[in-house]
Amino acid sequence: MNLSKILKNVFLVVIFGLIVTACATKKSVKTTTESSTTTTKAAETQKADPIEKLDALMQGDVYIGSDTVGELASGVPDRVFFATNETILTTASRETLRKQAAWLRQNSDVTVVVEGHADERGTREYNLALGERRANAAKDYLMTYGVSSDRIKVLSYGKERPVDSGSNPLSWSKNRRSVTVKAN
Amino acid sequence: MKKNLFLIILFYVFLKPSISFSLVEIDITRGNLDPMPISVSPFFSDKITDENIKENLNIENLGLEISKIIENNLEKTGLFDAIEKEAFLQKPDIAHLKPRFEDWALIKSQVLITGKVTSKIINEKDYINIEFKLWDVLGAKMVDGFSLTTTPRSWRRVGHKISDKVYERLTGESGYFDTRIIYVAEEGPKTQRIKKLALMDQDGFNTKYITLGSELVLTPRFNPANDKEITYMSYFRNMPRVYIVNLQTGEQKVVGDFRGMTFAPRFSPDGKKLIMSLAKDGNSEIWVRNLETNIQEKLTDHPSIDTSPSYSPDGKFITFNSDRSGYQQIYVMRSDGSKVKRISFGKGIYGTPVWSPRGDLIAFTKLHKKKFFIGVMRTDGTGERLLTENFYQEAPSWSPNGRIIIFYRETKTDDKGQGFSAKLWSIDLTGYNERLVSTETDASDPSWSSLLGN
To answer: Of A67, B211, B269, B340, which sits 20 to 30 A from B251 (CA to CA)?
Structure first.
């Protein structure tokens, strides 16, 4: 499912209030490379509205909305999101982690646990490893910005603790995450 | 778990027929669309036995219950069709002495099973003796049978042992009924599942919960060399680690002293080693720990995710999955970690390889075009065969005779995120006979024991 480097079809289920519109849309998606973290895409569609709505929530298949996002501290988001099977940090993720690092540098008595999570579309054991890899990607970035490693523990939950119980691409994108949680 | 201690087989007499070869035989290597009609007569017992059993077990007609266990086991194989007992023309006691074969042929039965239950007191303790005979109706002769004595509370296991004997005699394969399944019992909403280790007889009876649900537990697996021992992964104290549990004593211990998450454990076929993954600093490698010497050793050395290891039955090889090619695929290596070779090359991603107890096949989970499959391939990766397709399913585990695969399946939730369930399913190696395995709660991560010892 490492689809990020190739063209792919994305089937998106869009929900508007009480009216549920299932809309299968063919999208051409070109996503990140190791050096570039910006995601570009060209979407061909007749139905502009649903796509705009989803564009506000997902970029490629990385969640960019704010639903489920909590705070590590005031103005500091607690989580970052990942593409399917990926551990690469997006531009938005890096910005969030820099905010976390800045706050942690100012509050040097705080220790944290970075929890790594995967969506339900993978085998349990592989997802445990993937969650650990994601949590470490976030941890490494925090360390780069001056947080010492002994203040950061990682804990992978694999696919065991989804925040969204849906079985659709949007729900899965919210579940592919690492969450920085205060440990003391 | 103390139940096993009570199963004291005092004598195990085989009632060998004079002619050893039977006319009735079943070929189970193909999907069987024409099940063999079979009659399981209620086992008969005398009045004193009935009274003793009522007192001991609170069961009115133990002989009938035992015959139902056998019927249920044999029917679930898909190879046999049990004839309704109302159709039987001959009484159980007379049939057991000497069946009138014409009466059984008349109701189209090819095979007849009869038996007798007798209560016994040995050294002031209650026991039951159970005798069983297997008859070839068309050949008009007895083809197998035995008699065994055990404690009353082990009565279900006697039903399973008889089922195993019948299955072995008629198919030529070893049985799998006197076995247990360890699994993860699940409850609660999808976002906060409560998971417990649970143990049950292969037919869903005698469920026991091994943990309380206070911490997350995953992937229990039997020791193939010791059915009283399992390994699993627990989040006890938020430290995800591999444990070994003695089911008889309840004693459990963490395996090794690793700085990092250990997961995906499996025993070696001789039970003397444990293979697992260690995730540390964003990388998962496969390790082996010798449980006798406590020496542990890293087997893989690659920046990719290497996990889900499983030994070949001779212990010489290990299959595992790795995403070193960019996608999750199946690999085989020597058990010392050398000669790593990729074996899965089909379209899609492949995971959870599990070596068949017969050694010739590897069962796996495959994801292709948004569907999950359980399949088998030869150990060199050729001959891929997909047995079942669904929204989500994984974690195959083999029956001890290598004929059946048990796995778990999860349902898709609706637009409101409702309707999630996880259940155990089984399917024949042939791809036929897919069945829901009944469990008291939702269930996942099944592992099948070897045939139970005494």
So the answer is: B269
